[in-house]
Each structure stands twice: as structure tokens, then as C-alpha cells.
């Protein structure tokens, strides 16, 4: 068969798939030897790839060679043991196998009938994960691509509850509404509020205390003030594991306070939620079972390849009310007896994400998940203790989960000067290619973030990072 006329013939696919499998195994075995951040300038990669599609089909060998030679040297390696940027993530072997098989079947779990096993496996793994993190029965889970969408959907359900009229007539002419979250909440919350038609004034950031947790007195005051002004409290978002510092809002107290004002409680545990699998860390989540909805990202700290975000709702019918709109061609005989995943969000199409998560949960088991997450938290505390014991270094936020916020400021140095120094340290570490960090601002000051949570990260990598940081600090001070 001529190239490009039909699909890859099965025997050729078999040969190439073996080659790709070998590449994957070699890559994962040696990714630690590659630079974490590529040595590229904006536009470099693009300039090496033709700007127009090929007229006639090419050999897959050519595409695979370009993948190795042009793409791989231009990516940031998130699966590198010294990738400490942003937040915990690992694309683990079991999860990769699940992705491969899911791509092969290319099924679409939009309704039960469009793939019964995909829908039912999603129900099973969501219930497994619920049990693993210790949430009570009755929380019903669905898988979305990202926490950003999970939060958008949860707040859409909250909007339906706060404004029953919205279903038919939209928000037009109705009293203004607001969503409350800590000043350290993820930007996806405010984006969801904008997308839901509340405008940026529909979002109110609540100040936090000295451990970066939402202040209850400030939340209480904001709710009362807004109610007196005729603004409807739609939802309060509590974050358990903020992205910048992994602080945990006092959800146990937030739940009754929000309830007293008729507001929905959404818990954003996208990053931190997996830690609830570890018995000694679970107390940090006490009270989250009182929330109306909770998001947890297996693609962050449950070793599942991106994308996989779990949204739990206590009353799934409220989520369905916000999104159910069944066109004739999708009406099925099973309506009412089965879950049709398209009713739980905006997207009709649904990838088979449950498969990779199922593989991950089976490979690790509860014990494996506990051991790995526990070790990441231990490594974070270890790094923090080294920094605390070293002149000129400080730990800028309590180490609750796997994240360490560090700052270097030699005695007597002005804050602005120290900001520039930390920026140079960050640039120095990232330019080295041996480790990758990101940063945040706390109280206006620049802070280096070390997110520990990759399966390949061992104590030796954390120790090497600590040496690298000290070397970079010396070089930056002399510069
Ligand atoms: C990462 C993160 C998000 C966003 O996650 P996506 O899945 O990338 O949308 C939301 N909230 C918190 C607390 C996060 O850490």
C-alpha cells in the first residue's frame, strides 16, 4: 500500500511500536542524564521544522528521527529526577501503558453506550480513589482533563444552586454573586468565576494568616459585608495545598461558616489531595468531607500521566443539572440507569483516562502510594532542615507537604537586593541543566520553590540540588 493512502500496515506498526517501546524504556532509564531544561532560545525549535505540511506522505522513521533530534532536545523534562518546578508530577510506567492502550482503542466515553467498560471503569476507579483518600461514601467522582475544568464545573453547579433561575434565563437581571477564595488560591478559581459570568468583581480574595491559610475572621467579615450590600455568596473555595506554598485552609471551620451563608464549598486539593492517602498526613484534611465538591489531581501526585483530574461531588445531580442537555442522537434506552459522562461537564468527548489511573492504582496499591508520598514529604523536610541550619538561608513557608520555599539573604542585605540575588540563583540553577526550579512571591519577596514529588527523585538528587543552590548562591553573590 502506498504511504499515506491507508493506515500503517499492522506489521509495520508492530515493528515501529517495538522501537518506540524501546525508546520509552531507554528514555525513562536515563532521563536523569539529560539537561532538565533545554538549551534553546524562543523560536529555535520552530525554525527547524518546515512551515508547511508535506505534500505526499513521509516514512514514520523520518518523523521518529525528528522527534528524537528536534523535539526531545527542546523539551523541559518533567519526568527528570531533578525536576523540582511547579508541583509534583510523574508519568509512571503503569500510567504510560494505560495511555498507550487507550490511544489504540481511541474510544470515546461520552455516553455509557459509546463504551460501557470505559464508563464503568471510571466509576470504579473514582470510588477506589475516594476510599484511598478517606472520603465518605456518597461522594461521586468523574474524571476531567484538568483541575481548572473540574473547578469550573463545580462552580457551575454552585451557580445553579445559588440561582435556580439561571438555568432558563441566565444571570441577566439577577442580583450580583460572589465566590471567595484565599489570596493564595489558584488562578483557575478566578478564571472560572469570570467564565461563569460573575465578572472579576464576582471574585473576592480573602487575606491569609502568617502560615498562608485563609483567615476565617476575614472570610466572615467579607461574607457579612457582601450580604449587607445585596451580593449573593455563591461559593467558598478552600485550598488544601496551595500551589505556591502548599498551605492548607481551615476547611473544618470554613464549611459551617459558608453553610451559614448558603454558599457552596468547593475544596481545591488538586495538588495536596493525594497526601490524604498517607495516614499521618490525613489529619491535615479533617473537615473536607463536609464540602460540596472536591478536586484532586492524580496527574500531580498520584504518578499518573497528564491529564487526569478527579472531581467529587456530594450531590452529583446538581452537577448534572448544570450540564445535562441531551441532543436526540445521544438519547439512549439506558437513560436513567447508567452514567452518561457527557452530562458532567461541557465536553461531549471523553478520553479513556480511567485506564491509566486503574493501572497506576493496581501497580502501587495503597502501600506503594503511601510509601512514595511519605518519602517525598520526608525529603522536603530534610531539605528544609539543611537550609535552616545554613547561614544566609531561610525557609519562607511551613513545609506541610512536598514543597520547600527557600530564600537566600545574607545578613544585612536589603530586601530588593536579595530579590535580585535569588533571581540570579534561580537563573543559575536552571541554566545549569542539572535541576529545574520555579519561584513565587511571598509578601512581595521572591522565593525559590522546590517541589518534590517525582518517583525518580531520591535523597541523592535533593542533596545534589542543595549543593547546586549553595554554589549558585556563591556565584551570584560574587557576580
Ligand atoms: C495545579 C493546580 C491547579 C490547576 O491544575 P490543572 O490540572 O493544571 O488545571 C489548581 N489548583 C491547585 C491548588 C493547583 O496546584
Write the layout of secondary structure elements.
Elements: H1 10-30, H2 44-47, H3 60-71, H4 93-105, H5 116-133, E1 140-144, H6 147-162, H7 166-169, E2 177-182, H8 187-195, E3 203-206, H9 216-228, E4 232-239, H10 251-260, E5 264-268, E6 293-296, H11 298-301, E7 309-313, H12 316-323, H13 354-388, E8 393-395, E9 403-408, H14 415-432, E10 438-442, E11 445-451, H15 459-478
Parallel strand pairs: 2-3, 2-4, 4-5, 5-6
Antiparallel strand pairs: 1-7, 6-7, 8-9, 9-11, 10-11
Helix pairs in contact: 4-13, 5-13, 6-8, 6-12, 9-10, 13-15, 14-15
The structure holds pyridoxal-5'-phosphate.
Task: Describe this protein's structure.
- 43% of the residues lie in helices and 12% in strands.
- The protein is α/β, with parallel strands linked by helices.
- It has 2 domains: 8-37 and 76-91 and 358-479, Aspartate Aminotransferase, domain 1 (Alpha-Beta Complex); 108-351, Type I PLP-dependent aspartate aminotransferase-like (Major domain) (Aspartate Aminotransferase, domain 2).
- The strands form 2 sheets. Strands 1-7-6-5-4-2-3 form a 7-stranded mixed sheet, sandwiched between helices. Strands 8-9-11-10 form a 4-stranded antiparallel sheet.
- Helix 10 (251-260) links the parallel strand 4 (232-239) and strand 5 (264-268).
- The longest helix is centred in the last third of the chain and has 35 residues, at 354-388.
